[in-house]
Amino acid sequence: MSDNEIPGAPGPEPAQIDEPTKPRGPLPPKHDQRGPETVSPTGQPTGADQDKVAQGGAYLTTAQGARLYDTDHSLKAGPRGPVLLQDHHLREKITHFDHERIPERVVHARGAAAHGVFRAYGAAAGITKAAFLAEGAETPVFVRFSTVLGSRGSADTVRDTRGFATKFYTDEGVFDLVGNNIPVFFIQDAIKFPDIIHAGKPHPDREIPQAQSAHDTFWDFVTLHTEATHHTLWNMSDRGIPRSYRMMEGFGVHTFRLVNAEGATTLVKFHWKPKLGVHSQVWEEAQIACGMDPDFHRRDLADAIEAGAFPQWELGVQTFPDTEDQMFEGIDLLDPTKIVPEELAPVKPIGLMTLNANPSNYFAETEQVAFHVGHLVPGIDVTNDALMQGRLFSYVDTQITRLGGPNFAQLPINRTHAPVNDMLRDGMHQTAVHRGVAPYRPNSLDGGCPFTAGADTGAYIEVPVEVPAARKVRDAAASFDDHFSQARLFWLSMTPTEREHITAAYTFELGKCWDQAVKERGLRVLANIDPQLCAHVAQGLGLPAPEATVPLASPEPSAALSQLGRTWPVDGRVVGIVTDGESGLDAVRQARGAVLDAGMVPLVIAPSGGKLGPDDDPVTVQRTFTTARSIEFDAIVLAGAPAPAPDAYGARDAKTDDGARSTGVDPRVLLLVTEAFRHGKAVGACGDGATVLEKAGVASDAPGVVAGGAASTVLDGVTELLAGHRAWDRFTPAL
Ligand code: HDE
User: Fold this and answer.
1) Residue identifier of the C-alpha nearest atom 19 of ligand 1
2) Dihedral sign, CA of 616, 619, 622, 627?
3) Which of 222, 232, 254, 260 is nearest to 122 (CA)?
4) Do 586 and 678 reside in the same domain of the chain?
5) Is residue 253 a part of any domain in this protein?
6) How remote is the CA of residue 107 from the centroid of ligand 1, in Å?
7) Which of 212, 451, 690, 735 is the most exposed place for a label (fewest CB within 10 A)?
């Protein structure tokens, strides 16, 4: 041992140690690598011919632009030695990673979004001076759909309200229409928002259940706070489990005030009407989708846009005179738990929105987009709705926490397309390099600039509405006390099938509660909506049905509230075509062609992946019996009778006791067919595919089943059925 050596310290490295990986020089540039993509505020690449490469440029660099020769090894004192603190690349990489997550939205954390364009018809030009609503005006938009209760990683198809938030990048500034797929809300006053959300979110002790309303705290609150009754009923209806974001209505919920160039005002409610109609899953389907494809809605939206099946909605307004009492036909327009039936105030279409591009980066766009009810443009103003007023405060406040400071408007997705000339300065994440010395008014040092605008130069001027002399109170108008008449209106407007679904939903949700008092109180609320509804749910819970405690109203049903009984375009509907991979390939080709001709999406399902048929005319398999599940398809078509499955899948004929291979149908195909049938979906069987129906216990003449015949005939029948969404006449509702 030399004098300098520390006793007990490890000796020098043995000379010959194999290193698993040698540092190596940068790889040669790939011919298709370019500089970083430049993206406009709406996410559209601004450069020509941009590729979807993860990174631009040939060489990996640090954040400061220094080229790196290795990113796989930390800098160490020898290959087996300690890591050196001086390794800036290591610290930069890990530190950045440690800070990659931002707080998720306190509500609406789970979402999916798309870019698009809004084209105004001009029909609202007489009631608002908003330039983007003038005839022919085209405005870029970004829309984010969401669930409310679940965390960012929760499943899409839970029973919940859906957010429908639209950012219009107008020439006069950003207008955000931050709505939902349900036209009413749980509460009438923003001060109750923390209460309803605390009740709906997972229980604070175990943090379960995730993204569900079927638990005691939610039902405890909504049965005590009965102004939630109307919204809860919508949640329990099929509106709570949409088939697709593309098939949802959207509502601004609150009453807005529009003002035209002459200063005349009109009260309005905003509606989004989907071109594809309003459609839902059935509850079992939605539950299966939570496990089989938690990203079901997100995938559906992105796939449709990528395939060119651009979803469209018409924006419409219900208009009401701006009277002093702000009532219409006895309905308080400031009460967000009330709708105005379309039969009383028709929805007038004022423009068309088309979503035509997926985001390029989820975090930069979908996660960082920041909506605000107060982002208004000249011609659109708020009302005294106490829920809306509270929202005007909340949205900036939440972005400051979520996006780390007050400069979130500078993020590309949030940037207005109108010129910005504000006097907001500094703060976290400031990216602007402001000039001048006088960010204050009045000033002389910057020449007095900027000047304020007037009505004639496009200023946003609040409508000078009278505020009636009143006493300061914590109270609401007497009309807000009616919590049941519109819930009853909704119930009476439902078809028997929809009522059956609602009854099943309440029975499920209250059945998931443990507290007896909560269940009983739930029934007392239902008795005030409808005795039949109450009786059926009570039966399901095994409890007596109570009597109503309020007089039951007899409102005129509103047909517009029902989703059923009409036909809709079938664009983008997904049809699963089942084949055994050997026989019936002509039928597969025909069926696929017919599906494509109808503007729908064919997915060929075979026992295993790859290509089927001859090399010069192959059929590509998109799903296998192992990866396919009925929830993915709007209809199932059997292109022939699939051959017996391998023993591993237990496809023995039930009648053979000796365990020998039989002619039984693969159980995964049987599950596909029986599940689709149980969920009301169209089922088609070409040629001898009908034998599979028999094995599945599905009658070939059952409603919604098209059996026998050529693929083209079967597909005609299936397409017609899909226009009505589901074969509801397959079931006999008890209500
Ligand atoms: Fe929201 N809401 N909200 N809300 N809301 C948020 O803002 C809030 C309400 C809605 O995709 C938050 O940026 C309060 C009604 C949508 O980014 C937060 C009240 C309606 C989205 C917030 C309401 C909505 C939000 C959370 C009661 C339908 C998602 C993250 C006064 C008309 C937007 C964020 C997106 C998001 C507060 C009530 C719709 C905390 C206090 C009513 C679609 O600011």
Assistant:
1) 391
2) negative
3) 260
4) yes
5) yes
6) 7
7) 451
Q: Is 443 a catalytic residue?
A: no
Return the percentage of the chain with pLDDT > 90, whole number: 84
* Strand, helix or coil for residue 162: strand
6, with CB counted inside 10 A (0-12, 13-18, 19+), is exposed
Residue 670, H or E segment: helix 667-678
Beta bridge partners, 175, equal 168
Q: Cα(443)–Cα(396) distance, rounded to whole angstroms?
A: 28
Instruction: Match 């679940």 to its residue by tokens.
Output: 150
* Rounded percentage of the chain residues whose pLDDT exceeds 70: 89
Q: Are 628 and 576 in contact (CB under 8 A)?
A: yes
**Annotated catalytic residue within 4, 99, 115, 180:** 180
Tokens standing for residue 628: 């396919």
CA of 373 to the centre of ligand 1 (A): 9
How far is residue 528's CA from residue 526's CA, in Å, rounded to a whole number?
A: 5
412 lines ligand 1 (CB under 6 A): no
pLDDT of 21 strictly over 90: no
CA distance 203 to 213: 11
555 and 605 in a single domain? The answer is: no
- State how far the Cα of 351 lies from the Cα of 723, in Å rounded to an integer: 24
Do 553 and 579 belong to one domain? no
- Ligand 1, atom 32, residue with closest C-alpha: 179
Q: How many domains does the chain have?
A: 3
Does the pLDDT of residue 33 top 80, yes or no?
A: no
ipTM over 0.85: yes
Mode of pairing for the β-strands spanning 705-707 and 619-620? unpaired
Tokens of 557: 């049903």
Q: In terms of domains, do 272 and 405 share one?
A: yes
Does a structural domain hold residue 436?
no
Give the residue numbers spanning the domain of 619. Answer: 574-730
* Distance of CA 388 from the midpoint of ligand 1 (Å): 10
Q: Determine if ligand 1 sits within 6 Å of the CB of residue 112.
A: no
In this prediction, residue 664 carries a pLDDT of 76
Q: Count how many Cα atoms sit within 13 Å of the Cα of residue 468 in the half-sphere of its side chain.
A: 7
Tens of pLDDT, residue by residue over 684-718, are: 999 889 889 999 999 999 999 999 889 999 999 99
Confidence of residue 583 (pLDDT cuts 50, 70, 90): confident
User: Does one domain contain both 673 and 611?
Assistant: yes
Longest dimension (CA), the chain: 102
Catalytic residue of the set 108, 115, 375, 483: 108
